[in-house]
């Protein structure tokens, strides 16, 4: 795998799920969250995962990102098969190969913005690459906020710190779990712009779960899930196109409150 | 409101667990103390009441005041008085009581019991109602003795055995002819009792033809009071006193009760310390619960609950917690009370049997303590809850401590601390007892000040740990930052540990310094190789000195003979010594004159000389016990100490005036110096007497050290409860922190911090908080120890501060261990947390 910036699309696969199933409970109460899902996330591609509430989109992301276990099938990050990894190896994989952006920012309030950005490297005990760090910080325009603590930053700024944190360690793939869910539309647009730029300019691979068609329109590709199955995908999506697509599903109107409230499996 | 409060308690069961445990331990300590002391006190009173069954009226000699230049000795009860008493109207019988000291040896020649409870007495007539024989016959003549059944059982003696006993000098080896039971309080409390026939007892105890007490039994139909007045008429009331058995039993019961209440109060002080430490945990827990429920409480306010109702709901929760803790604590306390008694029995301290006493007072006290402590500690958090504005229901921001209140807090803390330090320092400059009250006040002020200041102190002190924590990488860094994140909570947690360690360290410092100074005093003043004394502190027979003096290898000896005298109309005790040897047996510093004892030349210690206005060369007149007077001259003034003080004169001058001379100690110097062989030789010379202690200076030091070690260990044991409660506090704080930071922990796990590192992070935080408390506690303890020493030092010239570095290191290690242990469970919980749930939880 290479992590040098690559312009344009390649065919190298950053992460791949094959026949991935996740089943909760047993017998009568059994719930199938993921039903033999096979999907690839190519390097330097910005993918959005969409679907109605309970479709399994968050579960898919959690399983591929090594945050959750799965019942059968296989998940690979690069060449590494996750199914056989113990917690320790899985943790190390997340540390070294994966970046995360959460809905609730999840910064450490005791650390400054800069310390939060370099946290993954601190955990790994690595020195951050100064040049790359500068590039990332410049990109999310946080240069004058580095010594601030999260409580002194706005929501948009906090999420920009989170984006920088995910980018700083140059992971093979970044997963975003509703990264704009807690932001107003302007800040959300900013964060999505950074993510798209990181893919276009820096060759970063990004996978994002969202229920927002506008957010999905920033992606290169949208994959749709329903009832735990991969139902379709769309390249170079527009928000209108995504919205039209979503209307095909029962309860799939992303504008309904029901979608908002139950849009995430847990 | 009550229902909401109850629901809250149930909902937060797990989070309240440590709080309940902390209060419960304190309550258990209180109720355990009450149950134990009541039970013991009751048992002793019952057994002592039984001891007076045979006594309707007791006749005792009246002690006489010394007058002018004469020593009035307490008269003894005569045979004639006994005969008179037996014949007064209403008297059925009269027993003449003779008592004294008798040491008994077990079959290995070792003294049975500690010496202080080794008693001897007389078996009256053919059948003494006080001492029913269980086997054998009454003792007759000098070669027979009866032994109480408990002692016989303990040492394995039976009728027909020969036993080694000693009264004040030579060893006797009488035959045991009888074994008896008794209600004697001393025996019930684990002492021993040997009985001789009356003539033998009188001879052994130096009371030929006289009695210590006459116990008169009333004829049926005669009341104790009637008998008492009959006796008062028949006996010379100037020389004797009479008292009814009923009154004596009551007096004794009262004495037992008051000595027990001393013990009770002592124990309750430590229970109070544990409870005080517990309040920190309660306050921490309720502060956290209120903070977590800010939204909910604000909602209550928004829908119309008054501030008072909000406070009340918090207090009701505290009430429920207090009741639960009180009830469980009471049950645990009853268990502790019962356990302590059987523990004492197995340790050899015989406690009379009796039922476990759980008085209503104990139950009320336990519940009241539990409820009141919990509600008091929850009061401030409750008020804070009431201050939550209704609008907080809409915002997600928790109420934060304003900087203003910390400024106020720090100012207040600084004032208290400064006042405390100043008062303590001022007190150290004062004279001994005058300084005690100001020092206590200063100590309290300083402790309060440090409490208030701990949040401020936490930052620099914890920041100082950064270089060490850096070794642990990101875990160490996060742990350090987490520990100063909520300074108030960290401070309260560390303070709880601080209290226990302050007391422990302070006491260790004082005890160590005292031990050293007493040790120095003893060894510096004495150049003798051995000090011989009686195990119970009684006087030795003058025979002992003679025997030691004639033992091969002994170069010189001197008794320290104690005798009362009158000087200028006051009673003064003289110390009779061997004038030619005392100079080389002691090493006393002479202030003026020369250390010369012989003829009319005497030496006097500085305090006595000062009080009489004597200088070297002064003359004074002494009136001896036998009424004769003599003029003596002060040859020198020496520096006295706790061991050797007073007027020393030659025994050749003193002894002729004494009717019954006895020696407190005999100082011995040998040619070969102190060694095991020399000691054996001396002991053998004294007939391997179980009652006589032959101690080298080292033995004396060891004895002193042993007393201090025992005392310290007891204090450690009592303070352990406070430390255990503090451990619960650390667990509580960590569990709260882990719970509150679950989202962060989930994120850290997601971005690659492994379980081990999470555990390490929690453990290091715990370690940092505990060591913070430990350093504060040890620091304060040393300061208080030093200050108390300054007060003591004013009275003891040899006092010097001894800093127990090794102990202090152990205490710091103890604090660290507390930290590690307390973190076990919270760290595991943190590491096991489901990261997906944690990230999403709000």
UniProtKB/TrEMBL annotation, chain A:
Keyword Transport belongs to the record: yes
Entry keyword set: ATP-binding, Nucleotide-binding, Transport
Residues annotated as domain ABC transporter: 15-252
Keyword DNA damage assigned: no
Pfam families: ABC_tran
Classification via InterPro entries: AAA+_ATPase (IPR003593), ABC_transporter-like_ATP-bd (IPR003439), ABC_transporter-like_CS (IPR017871), ABC_transpr_LolD-like (IPR015854), MacB-like_ATP-bd (IPR017911), P-loop_NTPase (IPR027417)
Protein name stated in the entry: ABC transport system ATP-binding protein
Organism: Streptomyces pseudovenezuelae
Classification lineage: Bacteria, Bacillati, Actinomycetota, Actinomycetes, Kitasatosporales
Automatic annotation (TrEMBL), chain B:
Record's keyword terms, sorted: Cell membrane, Membrane, Transmembrane, Transmembrane helix
Domain of life: Bacteria
Membrane topology: Multi-pass membrane protein
The keyword DNA-binding is annotated on this UniProt entry: no
Residues covered by the MacB-like periplasmic core domain: 17-233, 490-684
The keyword Iron belongs to this UniProt entry's keyword annotation: no
Localization of this protein: Cell membrane
Pfam families (UniProt xref): FtsX (PF02687), MacB_PCD (PF12704)
Domain ABC3 transporter permease C-terminal: 269-390, 718-834
Entry's transmembrane regions: 267-291, 314-336, 356-380, 412-430, 442-469, 490-514, 714-739, 766-788, 808-827
Family: Belongs to the ABC-4 integral membrane protein family.
Protein name: ABC transport system permease protein
Species lineage: Bacteria, Bacillati, Actinomycetota, Actinomycetes, Kitasatosporales
